[in-house]
Amino acid sequence: MRPLIAYPLSLMFLALSPACGEKHSLGEWTAGAGDPSGETAGDPSGETAGDPSGETASDPTGDPSGSTGDPSGSSTTTTGEPPTTEGNDPCTQYTDLASCEAAGCEFVGGGAIEADENGCRWGEGEYGFCASFTGGSQSPALHCTPDGVPVAFPFDPGNLPADWGPCDCETQGLALDCYGFAVNVEDLGCGALSTHCESLTDEASCNQFQGDPGLNGCLWVETTHEVAAEPVCNAEPPVGRCIPVHLRHDGGCFDLNPPAECDPGDAVKSPYWGRVSDDVAPSVELELLDDVPCQFEPLGYFQCWADEDSPALCDCACGL
Question: Which of 142, 157, 183 is where one domain is finished?
Fold first, then answer.
């Protein structure tokens, strides 16, 4: 087993309770340099990536093509009405942490998400709202400020002020997709990140769009089109392309079990596979990313040899 192992994100959700924050109680989570988690990179989802085997993906069909949907796993990010504070809460008049706590209220803070030419980043500044009481779901969530800034909360507040609301894919799509993987949704919430990465046609510009660990970005990879025919593995040169990826914190690799026939040099690779279309089974034809560095998790792909159902064409990464 390799020394660094990234565990599925779904196992980390219990660590996301605000009670685990900077020695504050629920709702007193403060935003330090845009980091709602207390980690140096500001990932409220935890330090590890999701499950590349597809077992915890939101799409039970195993479709790695990506689709539109809710990047937070709740109805408060792109559609629907968010929960609001009931009645007239006197604490809502305070707009910053200091005045909020001085009034005996609780500040519900999170980290702003930004996207620029250098990738996805945690924004500077203090974002949140003041309330007389706090509470809500343990799952992380995305909501937009009255000014339309996407904010990632380490838990989903149940008393969101009325002037906060859902984020709009049309205006905040790229920023929303910067965070989509962190809430255990492998499908790209708005599709903006996938479109952006595909538009970058050279390695330098593609790899430049990588920001803070724990968020998403782009990566230049080499891909081959594998077909279950003679010869089984494609001898054509790989094709370079830019794909969306999740940027892990520690770069740990999964403990894989490549075929015993693998050459030792090939056995340490981290290959991924993806469908060529919904109508073609991966046992017949697939797209193979031969070797992906451990600090990246391709979005919309599945890691080879992660389980016993891994397609046989994955073995082409061993030169078989």
Answer: 183
